[in-house]
Design brief:
By secondary structure, the protein is mainly alpha-helical. It contains 6 helices and 3 strands, in the order ααααβββαα.
Length: about 220
């Protein structure tokens, strides 16, 4: 019976779907982006920022924060102060990519431009509600050490708002916390990009029009 679904047809159908998905989602994007160059203002991560990025991943920050502001047609990200829509070139140095799929917290694509203070970031990591009232972000106190007395030379001290300070207790940032803050401070994509998505499409349209005229 020609209409009968057999194991052979199921396997062939699955292979066709997998092949199509591989071409559409892996091969074509690779061909399109393989020669992509970093924008002039985008710099590779420093060693410390790269270590901080690992802390960001290890602590699941990507589950609550995105790194991809949307176009104005898709959402009010620009009005929220999160910056221009991101483009593929913004992620040239990212392995793996941390675009994120949830926004329990704000987008962090330009958090380094919005908040360049290391003191603020350290305090916010230790006690988010001391800096953003009503925040549901968990406190990452395990990245810090609480100690009675003064800090030792070379240690990074966290200066909390008076309402959250603990008399007689010094809060010391761990190296992981310091590295994470360096990564967050480095997330500044306010540089100019070569072209917008609209300009890219306009250029394609112009090329198509030229070829059409030549053909005539």
């Amino acid at each position: 019976m020609s209409g009968l679904i057999t194991e052979k047809k199921i396997v062939l159908g699955a292979l066709v779907i997998i092949t199509f998905a591989t071409v559409a989602l892996v091969i074509l994007p690779f061909v399109q982006l393989k020669k992509l160059e970093a924008p002039e203002g985008l710099k590779p991560y420093t060693d410390q920022q790269a270590l901080g990025r690992k802390v960001y991943i290890a602590n699941g920050c990507v589950y609550c924060h995105s790194q991809q502001p949307r176009d104005a047609n898709l959402g009010p990200d620009g009005k929220r102060g999160w910056g221009r829509p991101s483009v593929a070139a913004d992620y040239v140095y990212d392995q793996v990519h941390l675009l994120g799929t949830m926004r329990t917290g704000p987008d962090l694509f330009n958090i380094g431009a919005r908040q360049p203070s290391a003191d603020w970031h350290l305090g916010h990591l230790y006690q988010p509600r001391g800096y953003t009232p009503g925040s549901i972000m968990p406190a990452f106190k395990f990245l810090f050490v609480e100690r009675k007395g003064k800090a030792m030379p070379g240690e990074v001290v966290v200066n909390l708002p008076p309402a959250y300070a603990k008399p007689g207790v010094t809060i010391i940032a761990s190296q992981d916390a310091v590295n994470l803050v360096e990564y967050l401070k480095g997330m500044d994509h306010t540089y100019k990009i070569k072209k917008t998505v609209k300009e890219s499409f306009d250029k394609v349209s112009l090329v198509t029009e030229d070829h059409t005229k030549e053909a005539k």
